[in-house]
Amino acid sequence: MRSPRGGTGGGARLAAAMEHVELIPGIPDDVAVDCLARVPHASHRALRRVCRGWRSAAAAPSFASARAAAGANEDLVYMLQFGNPSAASDDEPKADDAPANTPAYGVAVYNVTTGEWRRERGAPPVIPVFAQCAAVGTRVAVLGGWDPRTFEPVADVHVLDASTGSWRRGAPMRSPRSFFACAEAGGKIYVAGGHDKHKNALKTAEAYDAVADAWDPLPDMSEERDECDGMATVAGDRFLAVSGYRTARQGGFERDAEWFDPAARAWRRLERVRAPPSAAHVVVKGRVWCIEGNAVMEWISPRRGWREVGPYPPGLKAGTARAVCVGGGEKVVVTGALDGEGGGGRHALWVFDVKTKKWTVVRPPPEFAGFVFSVASVRI
């Protein structure tokens, strides 16, 4: 019989066995991973600092599957938000994640699953004003907007990995822009339209691959579209730029849209999709919804137009809404100003249960009650 010491293979296996350290002593690693998967996302930063094994387990692709299997997923809404001038004074107690020096425009996070609010740690110290955000997988990209010192559009891109809390500088857009359409479709983040530093409306577009950190210049749209909305098409794999206006028609919002066909690398027009200018658009389970002055509406077709699918968020001031779908289409989160007497300029959240067609009003702490310009959602 060959001695275990006589060959390099046996020695390597012995060394590997000696190096292996159980994630939780006395518990099989698969059971330990199941335990770690149930740790709330807010504690993941601390979890990764415990030891190398826990850090490796949390970074493995299978960790997300373990959280899903354990029913431990959490839905996070990332908001690019202005500071609230009516927030509590500095001498009042504040939570650790809501410091007295709240940024004029920064990244706030609402955990739809737990109801917790916080500031995103490690975010760039200065977020361009009116920057947009969009998510692909667990990555949240913050794009474009105005330089807060010059008030000129920028091409800056910052990318957050929501699963680890780490930020990186992304490849800049090819064209500085602000007030543009922005959304994820088919695994890429698309931007289109908006305006340049001379306030000229744009018809240029490009697509961002967050994994490769690279931009793909797209053909121009058929028309300039400033202040257009962005969303995915019904299939979820094509980008839609809705409405907007041309340079010569400031504020004259069009009632059409254009969607990008990636196979043909061409834009296609879509008529009569624009809801009233005050509406917020969102795609829910492959359907285009809008939240407007009387109800939640669903777009059927150019011929049939819109139909009502739910009541309007109670107490939401018209023209202030932003909307995002969470939980794979289970809920819609809307941000906006509180209407009527007693609002005091504060903003709130409304959570719509798609199944029951009921709204829940969420009143945030004062330091998180500022105007939200852009929203994105991530499931962790």
UniProtKB/TrEMBL annotation:
Entry-linked CDD domains = F-box_AtAFR-like
Looking up InterPro entries in the UniProt record yields:
F-box-like_dom_sf, F-box_dom, Kelch-typ_b-propeller, Kelch_1, KMD1-4
Quote the Pfam families the UniProt record gives: F-box, Kelch_KLHDC2_KLHL20_DRC7
- Gene3D superfamilies registered for this protein in UniProt: Kelch-type beta propeller
Q: What start and end residues bound the annotated signal peptide?
A: none
Could you name the Gene Ontology cellular component terms for this entry? cytosol
Q: Which GO terms describe its biological process?
A: negative regulation of cytokinin-activated signaling pathway; regulation of phenylpropanoid metabolic process
- F-box domain location, by residue? 26-61
User: What is the protein name given in its UniProt record?
Assistant: F-box domain-containing protein
Q: What organism is recorded for this protein?
A: Digitaria exilis
The opening ranks of the lineage are: Eukaryota, Viridiplantae, Streptophyta, Embryophyta, Tracheophyta
